[in-house]
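Dear colleagues,

As part of the handover before I leave the project, I'm documenting each prediction I ran so the next person doesn't have to rerun anything. This entry is a single chain, and its sequence is reproduced below.
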Amino acid sequence: AEPRAEAPRPAAPEAGRPSSPVDAVVEVLRGADARPMHLKQIVEAAVKRRLLRGDLPELWRVVRAAVVAEMRAREAAGLRPRVRPLGGGQYIVGDRKLDGELSQYERDLADRAARLSEATRVAIHRRLARLSPQSFEVLARLVLERIGVTGVELVKRGDGVAYLGGERGAGAAKVKVLVAVRPGEGELKRRAVGELRVGLQARGFDEGLCLAAGRAGQEALAELAAGGGNVVLYDGDGLATLCARFGVGVVKRAVAVDTLDTEFFYELQEG
């Protein structure tokens, strides 16, 4: 359902350290009294302070891509970017020109929005577990439609699970996907993954996808890891995240908030 390949990332930070490359950039820039710094200087300082670990040329690419990705995501969400490029490899914190308390208010707004999104995801998880088998199957079909699985048809239903078949695009080719839909809040066992994998071979499907309301137990995770990657599992927590990401059971709301246009006043002064 999602690309398996991931871009190279720096090693996980230690406890209490920034949790992302952009966190590290922000901490370094704030430590420099919010003065502009070149990307290479930022990364070297982050490595020296053990905020990032890895090969410097690779970290330069990872950090640059992470800053751009977060900047676009925050702008799309109506939030001020935490880091802003100035050109020529120079970067600066996004709230450097804000007056006094405005910077803290904007950070509080972003934090509250993130906490609301997380609480909403938890609420989705609870409601998924309470859905009837019929309602859960309808939701699963909506999720499959949003993630690009087409031509969904019932393959088999029984013993607390429904199997749906469909196709998804993989470049110029089509991949046949067998989907196990498992309602209820019971813990997923090894059987949940094993039966799906057997079904792939028996019915000629290429990939397996399991959408479940319950949590994956250690047996299910072990079976998933031992199978070579042809089955993807979204348990209740993962499925709730998927629903939120693709707008199933959630409403994306835009709240109008006045924020200072620092660039406008900068241009006035420069003019």
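Residues 123 and 240 are 9 Å apart (CA to CA). Residues 1-16 have pLDDT under 50 and may be disordered.

All the best with the project,
I.
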